[in-house]
Design goal:
Blueprint (H helix, E strand, L loop, with lengths): L2 H6 L73 E2 L3 E8 L7 E5 L11 E5 L6 E7 L6 E4 L1 H7 L11 E6 L7 E10 L12 H11 L4 E2 L4 E6 L2 E14 L4 E2 L10 E2 L9 E6 L33 H16 L2 H6 L7 E5 L6 H11 L6 E4 H4 L6 H20 L6 E6 L18 H14 L7 E7 L17 E4 L5 H11 L1 H5 L9 H7 L5 H17 L2 E2 L2 E5 L10 H10 L8 H6 L10 H18 L6 E7 L6 H12 L3 E5 L1 H4 L3 H15 L4 E6 L2 H4 L11 H12 L7 E8 L2 H7 L6 E4 L3 E3 H11 L5 H15 L3 E4 L1 H13 L5 H16 L5
Helix pairs in contact: 8-9, 10-12, 10-13, 13-14, 16-17, 19-21, 23-24, 24-26, 25-26
């Protein structure tokens, strides 16, 4: 009785896997057969030539050697039993070779065929396929795996249970090349020092050369040595190349979806590494970023923004062109991506719309939209914490995947509300405004700067933002979103009338080109308001009189006509346009051509306008219009502005600028800043001596205002902007004496010189029904003054005419002559 019977007693027992049962023998076991020789004709022969391919790569090692298993161990030294269908029962032994994806089997079980590969299908629960290599020192019935392979196959290294024995057969399934493999990479053991980022391209070459022609499947694990480190890899997904379709299928994470790694140029497998921290990879120099920055279906025409083609081209070139190229190439050239864009310009020009559409065109996460005042908090430190929260998600992802991180877009509206100049006292004297700026600077360009963020700031007041925030490395791309030109206005009108035209409710008499010409200096928001105002007129035509709740007629007849748009132009005026009412109020009596001097003054003024309009000439020109009080200087300057057809004409009067020096400076700065937003502008400084607070007693004037006006008279406007400055004064001698303000040209506006000019002026007023009345006035005035000279301005004469028309107690000629003679005596005593 053997030791089994002594312990358990006799009887039939199930044999261990791999043993043949012989009936009649105690215990039911067959004796261990002797190890057959290679030449033994009874040696099982396998026709597995059709299952082999070329050999596995030379790993630089000799045939694997390992101590033989203990005596008496199952299948020890014996040939493995062959199961039906060419299957062989195997068990796992430890393989000390951790840096190979190859399993080692016995040459007796699977004879070596030089120049060919061996793939085995293991009869485990998941039916895994491994790449094997016959070795002479591996006993029959064993398969040797390293730790990573055993973890993947979920088997133990020494058989202790019946489940530890499994069948194996030569794999006869498809062996299509792999188009791409997604691989998760992590350290086998935590490194003791900081590891520099690994070269992704070199790592890919090492992996392909080491695992060439080996089978990989999702879920498969293995070990890889690279750059003196051991890494554990796990296959996340594979993409199999279908040679019949000449294209690859969809990536799959199905463990049964397997294929061959190829290092050949025609079918080279693309490896996508997903590092697990603290593993970091350098960007590839050959392939674009894993997360494409632009959506593949993106088209500029679908953005719904008109008049900003050049701005979009500049933004793309400066901020996104570098993100399209492979990260490794960008890093090799020492280029860091643009992290900030500042959009500034007048209200309503489309800054917020651009930021929103940029977020849509990029293949990135949903943009974070931050309104400036929302950052502020009444608790100490809470405002700075809100800034840190803006970058929290980007920081977390950048630490995990580095340059493979997706782009995080932060849209910061009303940036000037919280990022004012440090030291200016913003934040109520608590310094919170300075702290917010400091926190934002460290996040954008600090020691641990992020390369996966894009901050888009928007403001109407670029001059209020801290200078440190505007330098390169932070908000380095400054894009002015200015008022659209005629072509841009046509695009905006086309966009806003698209649905109306598609619904066939735009009248044929509407010409969008004409409307684009008439909407000078209209912003995009104002053009949208114009269309709404025009539609309100169209709806009103179909509304019952006295009952706005009822519809008159068929609602399907609502049509937007040209007349609706023309009426809407009277309702909606541009904020940065020409205030015709203001300019016309400067000449309440109109322009009377009573003398050849008037025509000459207008001709000279319009020639200066054309000089500024011509691109080849200097972009800045200044003119001083001087003459006696009431000579019509302001009216003539306003007439020049109206006839110029410039999109921006601003009349600055003393009553507008305020009384204190600070208010005047702020008003003038804002006026010139608005002028710089328009391509062609005219600023009329009416009664400039009053604007600068000139007083003959002393004499004195506001030095700050004079210095500012002197600087703007000498400083050219920004690129692409042209400005004509017209100043009027009745104190030319003062300006000449102090030399404070210097103008390039001067235009003299004389008073009414003599009775002949006065006759022409009175005749042109239209106040006299009979020309004889004008002759009577001249005759009466000559008799009073005894002279042909007049020497007073047209404004005083028009005032005298209005007074004479009101008084009815005396004849008109007598009253008007008396009024004019009194004015002459008061203003020009020598005229009598």
């Amino acid at each position: 009785m053997d030791h089994r019977e002594a312990l358990f007693g006799g009887g039939n027992r199930k044999p261990l896997p791999g043993r043949q049962v012989q009936p009649g023998r105690p215990g039911g076991y067959s004796p261990v057969p002797p190890r057959p020789s290679r030449d033994d004709p009874r040696q099982p022969q396998y026709d597995n030539s059709r299952y082999y391919d070329s050999p596995p790569p030379n790993t630089g090692r000799d045939a694997y050697r390992q101590e033989p298993p203990p005596p008496g161990y199952p299948n020890s030294g014996a040939h493995a039993a062959q199961a039906p269908g060419g299957q062989i029962t195997l068990h796992v032994e430890k393989n000390k070779d951790q840096d190979s994806n190859v399993c080692y089997v016995s040459e007796q079980d699977f004879p070596r065929r030089p120049g060919e590969y061996l793939y085995l299908l293991l009869g485990l629960q998941r039916g895994v396929v491994v790449t094997a290599q016959p070795a002479p020192d591996v006993p029959s019935g064993e398969i040797r795996m390293n730790k990573a392979q055993r973890t993947w196959c979920q088997v133990s290294e020494r058989p202790t249970r019946p489940e530890d024995y499994f069948s194996a057969q030569i794999y006869d399934g498809p062996k299509s090349p792999l188009a791409s493999v997604d691989i998760e990479l992590e350290f086998a053991s935590k490194p003791t020092s900081v590891v520099s980022p690994l070269d992704q391209d070199d790592l890919e070459n090492v992996f392909l050369s080491r695992f060439h022609h080996q089978i990989l499947a999702p879920g498969q694990q293995g070990m890889l040595s690279y750059s003196s480190y051991y890494f554990k890899y796990r296959v996340k997904a594979v993409q199999v190349l279908d040679p019949r379709m000449e294209k690859s299928g969809e990536p799959s994470s199905d463990p049964l979806q397997r294929g061959l790694v190829s290092n050949q140029e025609s079918t080279k497998t693309l490896l996508n590494f997903f590092p697990v921290p603290p593993v970091k990879l350098k960007g590839s120099r050959k392939r674009p970023a894993a997360n494409a920055i632009l959506r593949p279906d993106f088209k500029f025409a679908d953005m719904g923004i008109g008049g900003l083609d050049e701005e979009f081209s500049t933004i793309f070139r400066r901020a996104f062109a570098s993100r399209v190229f492979p990260p490794g190439l960008v890093a090799e050239m020492g280029i860091s991506h643009v992290k900030g864009i500042l959009l500034y310009g007048p209200p309503g020009t489309g800054k917020t719309l651009i930021a929103r559409q940029i977020g849509k065109m990029l293949n990135a996460r949903e943009p974070k939209i931050i309104n400036g005042p929302e950052i502020l908090n009444k608790y100490v430190g809470a405002s700075e914490e809100n800034v840190r929260k803006m970058f929290a998600d980007a920081e977390k992802e950048y630490k995990e995947v580095g340059e493979d991180s997706g782009l995080h877009i932060i849209i910061f509206d009303e940036l000037d509300a919280v990022c004012k100049q440090r030291g200016s006292g913003a934040g109520g004297g608590t310094g919170v405004g300075d702290s917010i700026v400091n926190q934002l600077l460290t996040k954008l360009d600090g020691v641990e700067a992020l390369n996966n963020i894009l901050l888009i700031g928007m403001t109407n007041r670029k001059d209020l933002i801290d200078d440190a925030l505007l330098r390169p490395g932070r908000l380095e791309v400054h894009m002015e979103i200015s008022l659209p030109d005629e072509h841009g206005r046509l695009q905006i009108l086309t966009i806003h009338t698209l649905k109306i035209r598609n619904a066939k409710r735009l009248s044929p008499d509407v010409d969008l080109n004409e409307l684009a010409r008439l909407t000078k200096n209209y912003s995009g928001a104002e053009i949208a308001g114009l269309i709404k105002a025009a539609l309100s007129y169209a709806f009103t035509r179909h509304t019952k009189l006295g009952d706005v709740t009822g519809v008159m007629g068929d609602p399907e007849d609502v049509m937007l006509t040209r007349d609706d748009l023309m009426r809407a132009l009277e309702d909606v005026k541009p904020a940065f346009g020409v205030s015709e009412e203001e300019l016309e109020s400067a000449a309440p009596y109109g322009i009377v051509h009573y003398s050849p001097h008037i025509e000459s003054i207008l001709s000279n003024g319009l020639s200066f306008v054309e000089q500024v309009r011509t691109p080849q000439n200097a972009p800045l020109f200044s003119v001083l219009v001087h003459g006696p009080r009431g000579a019509g200087k302001t009216a003539l300057a306003a007439e020049i502005g109206l006839k110029s057809e410039f999109p921006f004409v601003k009349l600055v009067r003393p009553i507008d600028v305020g009384t204190n020096e600070g208010a005047k400076l702020e008003y003038l700065r804002r006026t010139f800043a608005d002028a710089y937003k328009s391509p062609l502008s005219i600023i009329i400084l009416d009664r400039v001596e009053t604007i600068i607070d000139w007083n003959p007693i002393g004499p004195r004037f506001s030095n700050a205002v004079v210095q500012y006006l002197s600087s703007v008279l000498q400083t050219s406007p920004p690129k692409g902007r042209r400005l004509l400055i017209i100043a009027t004064t009745s104190q030319r001698s003062m300006l000449d004496q102090h030399g404070a303000l210097e103008f390039e040209r001067e235009i003299a506006v004389p008073a009414v010189k003599d009775l002949r000019e006065l006759h022409a002026l009175l005749s042109a007023t239209g106040k006299f029904d009979d020309p004889a009345d004008v002759n009577a006035v001249i005759h009466e005035l000559r008799s009073i003054t005894g002279s042909e000279n007049v020497g007073i301005g047209v404004k005083a004469i028009f005032s005298a005419v209005e007074t004479a028309l009101v008084r009815r107690d005396q004849p008109l000629a007598t009253t008007l002559a008396a009024e004019i003679s009194e004015i002459i005596a008061t203003r020009n005593p020598g005229g009598l």
